[in-house]
Amino acid sequence: MIPPAFDYARPTSLDEALRVLADGGEDAKVLAGGQSLLPLLRLRLAFPELVVDVGRVPGLRGVREDGDTLVIGAMTTHHEVVRDPLVRRHAGLLAAVTRTVADPAVRHRGTFGGSLAHADPAADLPAAVLAMDGELVVAGPGGRRTVPAREFFVNYLETVLEPDELLVEVRVPKADGWGFHYEKFQRVAQSYAIVGVAALVRRDNGRIAEARIGLVNMGATPLRATAAEQALADCDDAPAVARAAQSATDGTQPPRDTSGSPEYRAHLAQVLTRRAVLTAAGMG
Ligand code: FAD
């Protein structure tokens, strides 16, 4: 289908982008890689009067270190995240998760920040950033604010971002020494997850000292499986991990759609949590 008519702006600085967004108010929409926004426009599910293309705003792309933190620019593409040596070394979970997003064409256009700002609970990256205890840096007319990933996702396709704000970068603590694994259950290769589980595990003396689990498509937002995380502490063998993984569904509200019922998704979440944790812990 043909998108509805809209005005188009392509700012060349962050200040200009924020000014244009402020002028556009509720009727403006940021365009990053366009891999989610353009389908919404073409299906006439979104009707912005102004599309603000931030592709030429400098400083929003790339990965850098800041002490114990990795800083990933919002406009860094999925392809760049997968290949980045700093991400591979210090945040292997992000590389593993991003590698499963869609196909090479989408990964070359779609952006890290776009995926988080879009806040689709079926997307892979939001749950991974949640599991990594990431923080999102948002620029707006009043300056910058930093939002923990746990507070960023509000509801289905809804975040704390205001219409005049731009997600500029994502900060994730380096996960050196943590094992990681992503289990994505999908019916068709290169599609969205029916359920996904992103796991980070730190072991000490053969026992799980700490586990962090991000759940994909188990509610209106990406979720942390906090009950399972607590139950996993001190587990030292596969049966104990399997028992703890049963709590992965606590507090979730999995959706019903053509890919599966809530009950089916709950079963998947428990199985995938067990597999992801065992692999991340090297106990599989
Ligand atoms: P855009 O489409 O440009 O924007 C998406 C939304 O976020 C818009 O509302 C926009 O205004 C807002 N936005 C974007 N950037 C910012 C910013 N910096 N600040 C504020 N707001 C912003 N994703 C998965 O996770 N897993 C998959 O398996 C998967 N499969 C896909 C298959 C296909 C065929 C397609 C087309 C997409 C798929 N995606 C998948 C989505 C893909 O990852 C997109 O790249 C991502 O959801 C959006 O990123 P984008 O840069 O394209 O954002």
UniProtKB/TrEMBL annotation:
Residues 243-262 are annotated as: Disordered. Keywords: FAD, Flavoprotein, Oxidoreductase. The keyword Oxidoreductase applies. Residues 246-261 have a biased composition (Polar residues). Residues 1-177 form the FAD-binding PCMH-type domain. This is FAD binding domain-containing protein. It comes from Streptomyces pratens.
